[in-house]
Amino acid sequence: MEVVSTPNNETHALLSSAYEDFSRGLLSQGIGKLEEALAGDFENAEVVSALKCAHFWRDRFATAEERTDRFEKAEYLVNQWKSFLAFAARAGDESERCLTALKRLVYKTGLELYESLLEGHSPGGRDGDILFRIGRCYKSLGAYDLALQNLDAANQVKKDQAEIMAELADCYALVNEMQISKVFFREAFFLNPQAVDCDSLESGMIRRLAEKTRENGHQGSSTAEWLPVYGVLYGVFTVRRELRSIEYGKLRQSIYAMEVELRDDPKKKETLMPRLLNRYFWLVDHYLTVKEGREKIDEVLLKIKALNPLVYEHYTK
Fold it and tell me: In order of start, what are the domains of the chain with their CATH numbers?
């Protein structure tokens, strides 16, 4: 049976103080308190794990300091977060308080670096990529209003970017604006599923949908391709809209191009099938919105049935 050590009062106080230091950006000071706690309670699992995690970031911050470019420094630190989560899971006994404090340390540092790159820029010269990264940092810090403000600004500068729309959708879901969240999610996965980093999305809605997608056998990059399909099948992506004439024309063209590509190269089925299915769904939704004749809808349904009978059965039941 695993024995979990319980921190004494002094150890608990030192842990809390160390985590507070991490949250304030004082990594070395926090490590010093953890080392003090370890000296007095050397078998405490949380202290040992917290030290491993803190040392991980001490090494990463040292590496970041070798970079002179502020953008590269911010990118390096923020992009290390996923690697850290895997490291922390392997280390075991990780404390949620410790992870939260270190997350604040990393994303506050990244945020300060990104924001420094916008200083002195006129509003017309704002960099959409930087605004996007600022918004993502605010989201990770739980400042959703500021996240939405910056992500919306990024979306105005760089239109029709799937990764920006997905982060906007995620933020709207986190503030319980579910209708607009679903709109942005559908748009993002329609534009470019591979540009959407499903692992960075935090809303419960999209995490559950991603898990359902994986349960249906779609792992890795395939998850993003199939997620919008299951979003429709499970009644998550329920918001539909009438397409503008130019959008309708582009949709029909893309459907035709994908049908030809799939016919000519069946090996691309794993990627093209979910993209085609998603476009068929969009086309049906458009026809329903404009009250198109039933024969056109039935024509699309037959294409869905031919492409994937199981999806057709679920979609039409």
Answer: 8-97 (1.25.40), 245-316 (no CATH)
* Mean pLDDT computed over 10-35: 95
- 98: nearest Cα among 135, 56, 65: 56
Nearest to 197 by CA among 79, 115, 86: 79
Angle at 298 between CA 295 and CA 301, to 5 degrees: 160
Residue with tokens 């792992």: 219
The whole-number average pLDDT for the span 228-244 is 92
- Give the pLDDT band (50/70/90) at residue 170: very high
H helix runs in the chain, sequence order: 9-23, 27-40, 45-65, 70-79, 81-91, 96-118, 128-140, 144-157, 162-174, 178-191, 204-215, 221-233, 245-264, 269-289, 294-307, 309-316
Q: Is the pLDDT of residue 123 over 80?
A: no
Which amino acid makes up residue 195? A
Question: Would you state the pLDDT for residue 126?
Answer: 64
Instruction: Name the residue with tokens 């994937």.
Output: 308
DSSP assignment, residue 244? P
CA–CA distance, 114 with 72 (Å, rounded to integer) = 10
User: 261: buried, middle or exposed (CB in 10 Å: 19+, 13-18, 0-12)?
Assistant: middle
Residue in 258, 210, 249 with CA at minimum distance from that of residue 230: 210
Chain mean pLDDT for the chain: 92
Across 164-170, average pLDDT: 97
Question: Is residue 121 very low, low, confident or very high in pLDDT (cuts 50, 70, 90)?
Answer: low
Q: What is the pTM of this model?
A: 0.89
Q: What separation in angstroms does the CA of 91 have from each of 28, 46, 52, 85, 289?
A: 20, 11, 7, 10, 53
